[in-house]
Amino acid sequence: LRAAFSPNTITGWTLGVSAYTSRVLNVASLPTPSPTLTLDVTQTILGTDLIFLNGAYELLTEYFLVRNKDEAGTATTNNHLYYIQLGREFNGFVTPYVRHEQMSLDESDPYMNALSAIDKRIETVGARVRVGDQSVLKFEGRFITDNGSDSHQEYGAQWAFAF
Fold first, then answer.
1. Nearest C-alpha neighbor of 58 from the set 83, 87, 84
2. pLDDT of 157 higher than 60
3. Rg of the Cα atoms in the chain
4. Is the CB of residue 22 less than 8 Å from the CB of residue 41?
5. Which pTM was predicted?
6. Side-chain half-sphere CA neighbours of 63 within 13 A
7. C-beta neighbour count of 84 within 10 angstroms
8. What DSSP character marks residue 90?
9. ω into residue 35 within 30 of 0, thus cis?
10. Is 60 exceeded by the pLDDT of residue 35?
11. Cβ pair 72, 38 in contact under 8 A
């Protein structure tokens, strides 16, 4: 479920809120001598976003609280994920942008542990290049820090188009 509010009196701003809930159940037999792994979690994701798109400028932000209740035990864990991105379009076709995103996870969360997810901080620098009305190229570099200490870099390119 998502609801958004874009007041006509404040051009370009949108405020959104969202909610999602689901039961995650997995039973997988692992090779002997490991026991059977069971995951039974009720997951609730609450989110909010704030977007500003006006002329050449963009501001994109999202925050999510991922709450996992371990139905096999009694623990409920909270995980926090967010990002903020700033960009500016030049000459109607190129938009450089910067982005900061972060995941702060509860180490005792059975669902996040099953995904091998860890705390992570990512700084991104990139550019979108419009090559037509329905085609965009994107180039970016990501500087990633896992668990506050292990760092590495990734570089990527993407061509997105619609027809």
1. 87
2. yes
3. 20
4. no
5. 0.85
6. 6
7. 15
8. B
9. no
10. no
11. yes
